[in-house]
Amino acid sequence: MITYQVLKGDTLWNIAMMHGVLLDELIAANPNINNPNLIYPGQLINIPRHVNNSTYTTMPGDTMWNIAKKHGLSLNNLASANPQIKNTSIIYPGQIINIPSTAETPSTSTPTSDEIINLENEVFRLANEERRRAGLPVLSLDSEITKVARAKSEDFINNNYFAHNSPQYGSPFEMLRNFGINYSAAAENIASGQNNAEGAINHWMNSAGHRANILNSTFNKTGVGVARDQNGNLYWTQLFVRN
């Protein structure tokens, strides 16, 4: 099977339609979903691998990147199969996109592996240690915000960039809203290349802007997301929120 990451507004029915499978087939491939009418942004949906469309008709709001992601491909792989598209940033509804017959194996580790969760929890612990030393109230760890942070770290790898603004999700503030997170204030810390949680926290605490986010008394919730690329490099995201 390949996987698809749920976007805001998705339903199992339209995900099934996107991939040319029956709704019953999709439900059967996802026994972890207890209520087919309840899915959330960032959730991973199993798509039966035996189904493989040779073409895809673009819909309003589509980008080459999200079409690639829907079909388990890299953007480069999809672009190579569509030489008629001169600018991959510009596509139109109704356009026919060729889908390569073989999807690439995703390069990231399983996002909820014990290793990843331990790294995320250690960042959370160390950030709260810094707040305690500064006499500030500790942050609570929010599972929904953590899902957003994980998606951002994975996005660095999948879309080959490193910046606060994502070519797929937009700014951290847009991304939080699109994942259904309500907030009155928010901030984001990102890092790459550090081998452990202590390295990521030290990097942030030695940077005035990142340190200010960790020690900002406005925030009361946080989420931490870590992803590892195929070369073993780690990407770190910590989101801070005031609800």
Strand content: 15-25%
The description of the largest β-sheet is: 4 strands, mixed
Number of continuous helical runs: 9
Strand order of the largest sheet: 5-7-8-6
Q: Tell me, briefly, the overall form.
A: globular
**In whole angstroms, how far apart are the ends?**
37 Å
Spans where pLDDT lies below 50 across 5 or more residues: 102-112
Sheet/helix structural class: alpha+beta
Q: From N to C, what is the helix and strand string?
A: EHHEEHHEHEHHEHHEE
Please state the CA-atom Rg, rounded to the nearest Å: 19 Å
* Annotation, overall tally of beta strands: 8
- Would you tell me the overall average pLDDT? 84
Task: Bin the helical content.
Answer: 25-40%
What features would you describe in this structure?
Strands 5-7-8-6 form a four-stranded mixed beta sheet. A two-stranded antiparallel sheet has the order 1-2. The chain has a two-stranded antiparallel sheet with strand order 3-4. By secondary structure, the chain is an alpha+beta fold. Helix content is 35%, strand content 17%. It contains nine helices and eight strands. The relative contact order is 0.14. Helix 5 (114-133) packs parallel to helix 8.
